[in-house]
Write a structure and sequence with these properties.
single chain, 68 residues, mainly alpha
Length: 68
């Protein structure tokens, strides 16, 4: 009976020895790429408005005042 217990213990020990890798291998992280934009983002509108306001302020004529 003692030999049967030793054989069973040896069998269990052998199974854990051949069970596989003990270290954890993390799965690879899949990189998700952001799709490129086909249209414009509209960032050009603000500088265009500022340039138009400056242009209107500089070219505005003072026809209301008479310096003569």
């Amino acid at each position: 009976m003692k030999a049967l217990k030793l054989a069973a213990l040896g069998l269990v020990a052998a199974q854990s020895a051949f069970a596989g890798a003990v270290t954890f291998v993390a799965p690879e992280v899949v990189a998700i790429e952001e799709p490129t934009r086909m249209g414009s983002s509209g960032a050009w509108i603000i500088p265009l408005i500022i340039a138009a306001v400056i242009l209107l302020a500089v070219t505005q004529s003072d026809s209301g005042t008479n310096n003569a």
